[in-house]
Queue: 2 jobs
Job 1
Amino acid sequence: MAGPCALPYGRHMRTRLHATQSRTQPLSGYSRFVAWAKILLPLASLALLSTVFLVARQADPAKSIPFAKTDVEALAREPRVTAPLYAAVTRDGATITVSADTATPDPASEDQATARKVWARIQTSEGIEYNAVAEEGRIEGNEIAILRGNVDITTSLGYRLRTEEMTAELGMTRLTTRAEVDADGPLGEINAGRMEVRTEDVTNASVMVFKDGVRLIYRPSSTDDR
Amino acid sequence: QGTSVPFGGMEGDRDAPVEVTADQLAVSDADDTAIFTGNVVIGQNDMRLSAPRVEVIYTADQSGISRLLASGGVTLVSGEDAAEAQEADYDVEAGIVIMTGDVLLTQTANTLVSDRMRLDLEAGTAQMDGRVRTVLQPGRE
């Protein structure tokens, strides 16, 4: 039979094991709560986790990726330049920059291009500035830029001119309108058949000449509150 | 001595819009001049001043016209009165026209010749200075 020390140890172990394995008396409130918690809590976590994937709004892949709706064939078929910029310095030291939204080279001849939403700026060596904006423009043979479609010219002399068509020579500072021009400035409202801006060669002064019939309306009293 | 003569009938409003028509207008920024050339006609109310060349003098702050210098033979018509001279200096702000250079003033009844005439558009009076001579047309009633 086993030594005397084994027996008490065995009996002691057996009673402790005996307590955990089979429950004889009913669980206390707290133990029951823990037992239920061990079941309910994992289930709750499972439910929460599923709302992230099962219940979430379906993201529509097509809408979430923004892409331009431009006509791809047109872009491919028509060779065009976006935001072209043309800059030149004239013989009398004036800088000319012409830029536009888009410019499409003219299939007919290679050194011509038509541009949309054209903007031209001329700064003479004396510091006088002319800004012209037009709907359409063409640069012909590196000589002349033609602006067409309600051309709006503002000058640093305080004049604002509107005409239908205007040309700006790229070799020297010379702006001429090819249509009737309406101007508004310190002198009042001017309406003329043609307008030409050129730089006098000797004095280098910038002269604005209204030609082919000029009509000026000057309101003495209105100039005070302008 | 000077002769003051009513001119142009009713008074002209000094702040009425001034209209200038011409063949050409050259605006130069360097010396701030603006020159009308080619049968220039300046009109305000019923006054018409025509000349082959008119130079614009800006106001001090460049915000408007101070004077109009007409030269090269000027005729001024207002109502049924007319005046001719070589040059005219029209002060737009003051409404005064000073005509110089053998001034000839013709009115329905008489004709006056002098060296210089000062015309107040607002008051409608003309003042002739220098050697004033009256040309009488015998037989005109």
Job 2
Amino acid sequence: MALDKIGIAQRIAQELRDGWYVNLGIGIPTLVANYIPEGVNVEFQSENGILGMGPFPFEGEEDADLINAGKQTITNLPGAVYFDSATSFAMIRGQHVQLTVLGAMEVAQNGDIANWKIPNRMVKGMGGAMDLVASADNIIVAMMHTNKKGESKMLKECTLPLTGVGCVKRVVTNLAVLDIVEGGFKLIERAPGVSVDEIKNATEGNLIIEGEIPEMSL
Amino acid sequence: MINKVVANAKEATQGVESGMTMMFGGFGLCGIPENVIQAVVASGVNQLTCISNNAGVDDFGLGFMLQTKQIKKMIASYVGENDEFERQMLSGELEVDLIPQGSLAERCRAGGAGIPAFFTPAGFGTEVAEGKEVREYNGKPHILETALTADFAFVKAWKGDEAGNLVFKGTARNFNPMMAMAGKTTVAEVEELVPAGELDPNEIHTPGIFVQRIFKGETFEKRIEQRTVRAKQ
């Protein structure tokens, strides 16, 4: 069965390593914070200016001066720090953040990503996404494999305006874990009960399948 | 000590004129200069170029200045929370320059720091790079971004003293320190205004040299954009 959003977040959480600073984007990536593996200490950076971001506040304890990049009220954890936006992006561009997890509308087999604009329909802006994808060494994209019409979002080439070029390393979808390698999307794992053929049919870009493909363990 | 104190938002915005470029600190509705925005609305100036990470929501923040059509051009990184903004942009009434958030922050910082331009990897290969010089450093392409300055920079701090020194609270700091540096005239509105000497010099975030006028804000609504909570166990 294909994963839901929580399943995608759980699978991405397995990528977290002890001692990492991690930036989580809006949407599915935010959920990753709920599934940190036992014994792994990570700190979450939010680009509006906090390291050491904690969970949502208890009702009645919200602070208008303490939000994340999604403008949601949050809390801080012991050891947290606040800083200005230039310092925040120094952390990001300067590669002091070890992992960036973000959502996407499309990913191409060469690692291009599009997630900020649909011409003449939706123009919200790129926020910090372009700085994040251009700078981070390790970028994982969390997304659905296909759109609501069933069309693939894993493409030979992106059709929407790009956010970054050749930057995505790994994609975790509701169907599979894919790595971007020379020549296309390399199939690493299948979602529980999802067949290789299903993944093939949902992938427009070149899918590289080598040997037996294991199922994810969640 | 050079005393920067003015009475209120009206006095703090003396000299604003139509056609000016203005910076507004804040991220979403967090750390925005609420009182100054009302004063600029009341002043009736228009044809403004506004530089701000976001454009407020329909009925708060810079949204007020969109309703009154005082903004000609908006320079921002994310504008997704505002229907009137979207309408004015899609109809061509409003000029919009969307730039990556880190580039926006650094362009303000550079403007205040006397650095006319810099190279950044953000936006290479995208619409943002169109018409910009590309240069390779350490094997990676970068694009040339230029500094931003403004006739007025409007910022909001938690505490400030008579000398214009500022302390911010939580994530309300965001763009305020860089914009304070980049304004020809920088106006700070604060929740608490204290005599010089009361703030610990070790803990000041923005030195008063970057601030020309400071006042205690009349009212702060501090509206929350996305109220997210968890249940008590």
